[in-house]
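Tutorial handout. Part one gives the primary structure; part two gives the three-dimensional structure as tokens.
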Amino acid sequence: MTRPPDRAPHAALPATVVLGVLGGIAAGKSAVARLLAGPDGLVLSADAAAHEALESPEVVALLVDAYGPGILDARGRPDRAALGRRVFAAPTERARLEGWIHPRVREKIRADLARARAAGVPRIVLDVPLLLENDEHHGLVRQCDHLVFVEVSAEERERRARALRGWETGEVTRREAAQLPLPEKKMRAHVVVRNEGSLADLARAVNNALAELGLAPGPPLS
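Part two.
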């Protein structure tokens, strides 16, 4: 996992700037990614790519073969609740599902990134939850010009996870135990965005971060 090289203060920036977003669970990384990209940029979301991969004909066929047709809902799509109960109950089942999903996600993000570069998209933001942890497999960190860390207290992230995701208290801490420690992610970042206020506060924090990186700020919120 290699940190992108630091740039000289007056070094010429490439036509396309790639930003990677780091942070803990329920820190609001996707909201920050959208603000970083701005109206002319592009967010590449690993979660969106994973949802697309899960509903692909190839993966649906693998799911039915493994779990039977009952794993699908009335529309013939994977029943996410039923699938979640299966895969989170046994590490081997989760590993098998990830083996089907993750290669497709990596392939899509790399392909979309290459296309966006070729098209001259001015700012591309990678919203990839395990950007540092899985860099050995996807190699995306070296594609980033800058890494942005989204900082939120553990208490606030727990509160958000309970309110927005219905998670039990302590679930954030349990899941993050398998990830790189947040202080290490923060240390690897080039700039930090604090996200514990309003959306307007967050937009200002993101614009301040962009200014630190020598990039144009996003438009004001209407």
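Part three, for discussion. The longest strand covers residues 17-23. Residues 7-13 have pLDDT under 50 and may be disordered.
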